[in-house]
Amino acid sequence: MQSKELHIEINEVSGTQNAVIINFSGELCSLCISKISDTFDKIDFNFTSNKFVIAEMSEVTMISSAALGEFMGGRKRLIEKGGELVFAGLNIELRTKLNLMGANKVFRFYNDQRSAISAYKWEYEKHPEHLHLSFPPYLKLVPPIRSLVSRVARQKGYGNRDAFRIETIIDEVCNNAIEHGLEGQNNKIDMKVTIDPGKIEFVVTSISDPEKMYALRALLKPEEDATKWRTDDKRGRGLDLIKMLSNELSVECNEAGTSVHVKKLREE
Question: Are the CB atoms for 151 and 258 separated by under 8 Å?
């Protein structure tokens, strides 16, 4: 049976600083070792150091142990210069075989190159990711919302302590937004979440209820900066908890609406 000829193409990823994609197609057999080695030589010669290299494998039909060894050597060369090599687009059969060979203990696998590029932007360029939620002011919606954001944080590498504190902050902010905002499903509460490897931020905006404005303002010390919460009022203790668990807390409150901004630095 005739083997499928190996084709290799190298491209920089637009919109990134140091990411490169190597598109492989065909069979990565033992006869292709020199081609693979030459590819890493070209990266060393033509590109700057600390390159994040994505080996795009969706068109690859076979990978031999010898070829895998060459990739391990290429990854070592990249790591020594501050770079990395990951695999993307492996079909189920190849991924299973590589797992049996122990490759998953050395390389990170991504379902597609888009996922790999997102991982690069997150880990190396520290690009934040965003989540935008809009929901009616019902208390029953708060538990699934706080759970969703907590799961996102865990998926991004945040630890259990951070995740628990994030849930607590969201619970308190949303409950207060519902308590002091206008009722009814048309009066949406808006939540914007921004998360990066070092911090997570929330901006929760609700429509103010004129009849509840006095109670809301009573939670703030009028003689001090409006970002500081009272500590001598039972109704303000939940907001004091937010301040204790977060690194920054600010509030804008007027007849048009109330906006709470919370920043929490990653601890784990």
Answer: no
